[in-house]
Amino acid sequence: MAKHAGGRPRERRVDTVIAAAVRAVIGEAGYAGLTVDAVAAMAGVSKAAIYRRYTTKQEMTFAVLLPDLDERTPGDTGSLTGDLRALTEQIAAQIVGPGPDNLTGLLADIRADPALRARFATTYLTVERGIIGTVLDRAIARGELASRPDPALVHALLLGPLIAWLVVLDEFPARATELAHLVGEIAGGALTARLLPVETWS
Amino acid sequence: MAKHAGGRPRERRVDTVIAAAVRAVIGEAGYAGLTVDAVAAMAGVSKAAIYRRYTTKQEMTFAVLLPDLDERTPGDTGSLTGDLRALTEQIAAQIVGPGPDNLTGLLADIRADPALRARFATTYLTVERGIIGTVLDRAIARGELASRPDPALVHALLLGPLIAWLVVLDEFPARATELAHLVGEIAGGALTARLLPVETWS
């Protein structure tokens, strides 16, 4: 995150210019071509101005790209399947946004830095899991679910195939809609009994 | 792949020494610490000996680690769920083997090199999808499935959550067994009708 978050207007303007430059450099040179030198040149600022804000290139990338993920609870569509479809489309858009190569590079950077990994978990994954919990609770309130499936399992079933299709299988994003249908059926349909209790499964 | 595949005994011995050194360097220094220098030092061979075999570090890594994946069709367990569980355990072991950081680094390297990506698809993903097709065909022959679910969708549902749990969610591998149950139920149970035809879904 920016060291100067909430700073003076001029500082905030420089933050915006740097963020735009990060996106532009990734767009032109890919994640592998993203360097502090390239961002400084694109933004027309000194490298020192960047390092005053971010300790490392990875910090900079993370701070710029993570807010782009725009994690929101979908509006109530009136059904579990509808809510899950909206959430799947949101996650799919987040994952497709940076492109497969950038996503893989970003994940590798996050994994390589325990501090970034912890921050990614709290600012993104925990929020996303909370949204899934909200969507499941709505379904219980509607009478669609007799019991609450494990949000962690639903999370992996939504996020996992999307990542696999994009990063490994090269088959994204045609299947996002079918995935939403499928997970909705899993959570809301005949398999709910199989989703609880988790403890007895392994 | 090794340029000298099937070469003289001495060449094959050097291949084995290099392969062992790649695994040892990764074990000690992680994927980020894997360099041709480090492998040459560990193996007690010259860098030239390595570059005679592999054009790049990524070629070397890929050639050593991919055969370790040991892609096999599981023995017939007598049920679709049993076959899928065996396959899930095999894929889980492959993914856990290198460790999350190494897996992420390897995937990033594969993505960054179109030739490696194509080779990964033909030597690993296509084989794995063929195994899934065989498992589904067995289930049809047993009368467990009235129709054949799309192997590509089953593939993503098996592989995706395993990758997400390990690389993104930090929750692997406790859930491999429940995943196998779940995908078995999806493929064989109440949702089969939902899996076909894929065309009408999106």
Oligomer: homodimer
Structural class of chain A: mainly alpha
The named CATH superfamily of the largest domain in chain A: Tetracycline Repressor, domain 2
The percent range for helix content of chain A is over 70%
Tally of helical segments of chain A: 10
Write the CATH architecture name of the largest domain in chain A: Orthogonal Bundle
User: What is the radius of gyration of chain A computed over CA atoms, rounded to a whole number of angstroms?
Assistant: 19 Å
Average predicted local confidence, pLDDT of chain A: 80
What's the β-strand tally of chain A?
0
Distance between the ends of chain A: 39 Å
Under CATH, the topology of the largest domain in chain A can be stated as Tetracycline Repressor, domain 2
